[in-house]
Design a protein that fits this description.
This protein has one domain. The protein is about 70% helix and about 0% strand. The chain contains six helices and no strands. It is globular and about 50 Å long.
């Protein structure tokens, strides 16, 4: 159990370190550094467009700007974090890292919401409901 906890903490530490380093670089540049390749190629917004700006806004505790950048991912974030925490606890306790059946259903539901959002945000006239990130 202690080995799994240590392994999980190291992985989370690397992930947080990489995120903080990216925030540092974006702060120096004054803008997000990674463009959306889907948007660059197609001209359409993907469901994830605006996530970098959302994360930078959350880091500044600017929830209004985070919501404007990507409202759906911001609203799905708590559920995703709960699932990730449940999976982490399950991994540390019993060594299983795959989601349970209920978690899988919720994950697929969240994916469906994201796909629907990606479709709706690109419809003509949808800018009043889903402004560009």
């Amino acid at each position: 159990m202690h080995k799994r906890l240590r392994k999980l903490c190291i992985r989370i530490g690397w992930l947080l370190g990489a995120g903080l380093f990216y925030i540092f670089l974006c702060t120096l540049a004054g803008r997000p550094l990674i463009p959306c390749l889907f948007h660059e190629v197609t001209g359409f917004y993907c469901p994830g467009c605006g996530v970098s700006r959302m994360c930078l806004a959350l880091f500044r505790l600017d929830f209004k700007a985070a919501f404007r950048a990507n409202p759906v991912i911001l609203l799905l974030l708590p559920a995703g974090l709960v699932i990730a925490l449940q999976m982490a606890v399950r991994y540390v306790k019993i060594g299983k890292h795959l989601p349970t059946r209920a978690q899988t259903i919720v994950i697929y539901f969240m994916i469906g919401i994201l796909l629907l959002f990606g479709l709706l945000r690109n419809l003509p006239g949808s800018a009043c409901f889903f402004p560009a990130p």
